[in-house]
Write a structure and sequence with these properties.
By secondary structure, the protein is mostly beta strands. It has one domain: YopX-like domains (SH3 type barrels, Roll), CATH 2.30.30. The chain contains no helices and twelve strands. A five-stranded antiparallel beta sheet has the order 11-10-9-8-12, with no helix packed on it. Strand 9 and strand 10 form a beta hairpin. The C terminus is likely disordered.
């Protein structure tokens, strides 16, 4: 059983909110919002980003949309596809196994440039 938790993408401010910053998520009567801890700020336009339940080789939690650098120097995006979390490299998809997870180097929200060019290979 994996731990269920989320990051929140604040679409209005284009920022990621980590699980430890979230006080409450409200979903009732068609109204959805996130309340931030310490500030009581309400975020109305957001997207939930799911935790995979896995950590990279550096013990960093892996979320959907994270960008991984594998041992072969290739850049992979984490996606949820057909009921499981997978690598996405070009048009091919790979299931994530514990022994193949590289290091998280960013995410598609804050670092989309990492996925550009070189067919997914690391750029210098």
């Amino acid at each position: 059983m994996r731990e269920i938790k989320f990051r929140v993408l604040d679409k209005k401010k284009n920022r990621l909110i980590m699980p430890e910053e979230i006080c409450r998520l409200h979903f009732n009567e068609g109204l959805c919002y996130c309340v931030l801890l310490w500030t009581d700020e309400m975020v109305m336009d957001f997207e939930l980003i799911d935790f995979t339940g896995l950590k990279d080789k550096n013990s960093k939690e892996i979320y959907e949309g994270d960008i991984l650098l594998n041992d072969g120097g290739k850049i992979d995006e984490v996606i949820f596809h057909q009921g499981c979390f997978c690598y996405k490299l070009g048009d091919r998809r790979y299931h994530i196994f514990d022994n193949t997870i590289g290091g998280v180097i960013g995410n598609i929200y804050e670092n989309p440039e990492l996925l550009l060019g070189n067919g997914g290979k690391r750029r210098n």
